[in-house]
Amino acid sequence: MTITSAGSIASPRRQSSSLRFSDRRKLFLLCLALPAIVYVVLVAVWPLAQGIWYSFFDYNLLRGGGRRTFAGFDNYVALWTDATARRAVVNTFIFTFAAVALEFLVGLGLALLLWRDGRFNRICLAFLLIPVTITPIVVGLIFRALLAVDYGFLGYFLAEWGISGPRGFLANTSTALPVIILIDVWEWTPLVALILLAGLKSLPTDILEAAAADGATAWQRFRMVVLPLLLPTVFLALVLRVMDAFRVFDIIFVTTGGGPADATTSLMLYGVKQGLEFFNIGFASAIGNLAILCIALMCAVFTLLIRRADVRANER
Amino acid sequence: MRARPRQVTLERTALLAILVVWLLPVLWLVTTAYKPPREIFSSPPTFAFTPTLFNFQRIFEMFDVWALLKSSLIISLGTTVLSLLFGVPAGYALARAKWRYAIAVAYFFLAIRTVPIIATLIPFYLMMRDIGLLGTWWAVVLINTTLNCAFVTWMMFSYFRALPRDMEEAALTDGCTLWGAFYRVALPMVVPGIIASALFCIMFSWNDFLTPMFLTGPDTKPLSVALLAAFGTKDITWGTLGALAHFSTVPIVLMALFLNRYFVQGLTRGVQ
Questions:
Q1: Facing B93 at nearest CB: one of A33, A209, A267
Q2: ipTM value of the model?
Q3: Fewest C-beta in 10 Å: which of A143, B19, B223, B244?
């Protein structure tokens, strides 16, 4: 390191400073980092803390003049007793795991298809990423229109041929959530494919070639060599998608609005409804905190899995 | 891996077939906008139609499209500029600091990005109401900047960390200031990272719907909010909605296609 010697080099500006160079450097880096840290603390951490505080109060802007009365854990108890809240938790988990599992399977297939380098594959990938860039609201509207029973391209024929029932998939309590899961799969599978592809391309080629030279079949190579090496990337893709899928709001809001009969209500949707439509701030805050808790727990589990996968990949 | 020509052809055919099926919904959206109203609602649905710009005329009569575009632009550019101003220096500082907990701070930024917006939106809404910023572009820009600046910080942290320190050290020995080592030496080397981050911020905030829905007013609402509001009115048809959706999707799709290299970099780098 040349820091100390750099500090002693004669330069007018440095001599005028009474601080040592390494200290000035620390101060400089602190000045660069501080605005972002202060900003995030003020506009993200402070509201989060307020949300935790509010969740212990009976606080409704439309009732009792918006006064806050301490309610202990009432809001959290209500999360357990409220049928819609329970439904929302279950729906959110079903949605998250089903959507991410499908996205992973289809995404892995696509990534393997795209693995070969070349102009054709690059162009295919660029176009495949279009769903990721489309406004989620528009994605919801597209599928709502396509599934409309009276004139939608899919919905009309599905109803006509008796597959979906006369009111369509989105109006049926047992099919609405699966359909929304498929919409999410359509939107986000390309992203999963892209991340897995980046992982595939960074695999050490000598190991792959050695496996091929040893006469391993394609399936054996995939199962015994590619997959174990890819595992860290797989977990990263999964953790990213799980975090995002858990916060699903836009496509549900547009396609079903949480209905029919709460069949597609997610935690985010219910929280927004309670907080910003009914202004039930205390309860909505509790919903938000529950969502954070779930995400944090899943994060912890995934971090553990990633560590293990990393260790195993390095052992090989 | 050695490729046999037949297998390559097979793979490409499969890929092309998947791509076409995958993009059919998008194709439907694009074509609806050019269909006359009668043909959209034809039952059973038909594929053939005579193209018309009628729907585009209608949306310009029904909405102040330029004002909506302006709102979307102000929100996404404001968010992007603020996020880069906060995030790029912070990413550099965290990558260069020899402090033991620098990585922990970087992870803190990553954690902020995963927070569900509902948890911060409600207290933030009340905060904005109290200081009178509710219904302004500022409210949306301020809350979007938290998530985006956290994202930029994390991403730039990974770019700067991959950058060797030698150049900066050499510049410092030659009498360059600390600011100069950051601004003139390190920064030009991570321009691809900055472009990728900027693309992301623009995309996130342009496509965002939940925060502007509750934080903007009638004069400040962006395209994404207008799209859904339009849907509630009786006059709206899928055709006019498709036309309006053009304005909200085409800029981002084109950006992603033409700057694909940076876009792909951003998508893959942001998670590693």
A1: A33
A2: 0.88
A3: B19
